[in-house]
């Protein structure tokens, strides 16, 4: 389901227990890069189900110059490169080289005009003023402590008709796979003292990121909710990608056998909700977009 509403700078607060810590985020993503690279190709079709609505919300068109913030293993930069075609250009940046390794590997095999990738912090962009038509960011903005600097920098590098679009997660309880994995990991290896999942849901409140964009100077800020339900076969270990990508740093220090016990618990939970061998997986993401004006 997709709904769209305008944001008028409402007085909305973010989830304050979800504020990220810069050093912790850098360590988390450095430790996660290998898993994101490993899963990036098998998950590419699934990733496009979120990439394409994000590119649409941002208005990405053939021939445009696009900056993708927090590209990780290349989402949605590679999809954006397909859309802008040979007359356009995509540059993706990410804070840590370990996450960008997958994007660089995948770009080498890209048929068509290749996107470029560089290490960079989205609060201090290494690009001239008004250099891009579009700025995209999929599941990255929530990990940045200094949102104001990121917004100011995004506005600075966008041209006068430019647009930015950020994808964030809705609440944990609306995202079946994450909530079940979190429950199983916490039951088996104990609660996470760093609460490392919390920043994912920093902008779970409708309007919370949109009001910050409006305050920063974006115009015509809008928000869409995406709430697809995937129907996945129970006989495939569909949870493994998320377990590796989001829980790798926690699992690294877990006792031998913990991983198997977590997988057994997850399999058993999903067996209980499957109908004729198919599990419904609910997902809730939001896209918040704004124009540079
Ligand atoms: C959940 S991953 C998303 C990766 C990719 N966009 C995707 O959707 O698959 C979050 C990414 O944000 C990056 N990141 C975190 N803080 C950042 C910052 N200040 N500047 C640039 N990238 C950052 C991390 O290194 C990580 O690659």
From TrEMBL:
Superkingdom of the source species: Bacteria
GO terms for biological process? methylation
InterPro entries per the UniProt record, alphabetical: Methyltransf_25, SAM-dependent_MTases_sf
Protein name per UniProt: Methyltransferase
List the keywords (alphabetical): Methyltransferase, Transferase
Q: Which residues form the Methyltransferase domain?
A: 66-162
User: Has the keyword NAD been applied to this entry?
Assistant: no
Q: Which Pfam families match?
A: Methyltransf_25
For molecular function, the Gene Ontology terms on record are: methyltransferase activity
């Amino acid at each position: 389901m997709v709904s769209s509403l305008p944001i008028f700078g409402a007085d909305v607060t973010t989830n304050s227990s979800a504020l990220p810590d810069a050093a912790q985020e850098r360590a988390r993503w450095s430790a996660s890069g290998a898993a994101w690279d490993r899963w990036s190709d098998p998950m590419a079709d699934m990733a496009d189900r979120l990439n394409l609505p994000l590119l649409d919300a941002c208005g990405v068109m053939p021939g445009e110059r696009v900056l993708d913030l927090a590209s990780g293993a290349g989402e949605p930069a590679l999809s954006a490169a397909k859309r802008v075609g040979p007359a356009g250009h995509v540059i993706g940046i990410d804070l840590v080289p370990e996450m960008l390794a997958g994007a660089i590997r995948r770009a080498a095999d890209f048929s068509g005009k290749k996107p470029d990738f560089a290490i960079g912090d989205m609060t201090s962009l290494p690009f001239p003023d008004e250099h891009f038509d579009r700025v995209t960011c999929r599941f990255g903005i929530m990990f940045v402590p200094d949102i104001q600097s990121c917004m100011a920098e995004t506005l600075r590098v966008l041209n006068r008709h430019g647009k930015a679009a950020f994808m964030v997660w809705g609440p944990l309880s609306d995202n079946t796979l994450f909530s079940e994995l979190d429950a199983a990991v916490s039951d088996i290896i104990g609660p996470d003292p760093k609460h490392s999942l919390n920043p994912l849901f920093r902008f779970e409140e409708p309007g919370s990121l949109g009001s910050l964009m409006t305050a920063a100077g974006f115009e015509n800020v809008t928000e869409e909710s995406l709430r697809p339900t995937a129907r996945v076969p129970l006989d495939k270990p569909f949870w493994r990608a998320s377990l590796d990508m989001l829980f790798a740093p926690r699992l690294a220090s877990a006792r031998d056998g913990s991983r198997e016990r977590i997988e057994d618990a997850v399999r058993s939970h999903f067996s209980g909700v499957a109908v004729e061998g198919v599990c419904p997986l609910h997902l809730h993401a939001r896209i918040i977009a704004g124009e540079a004006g």
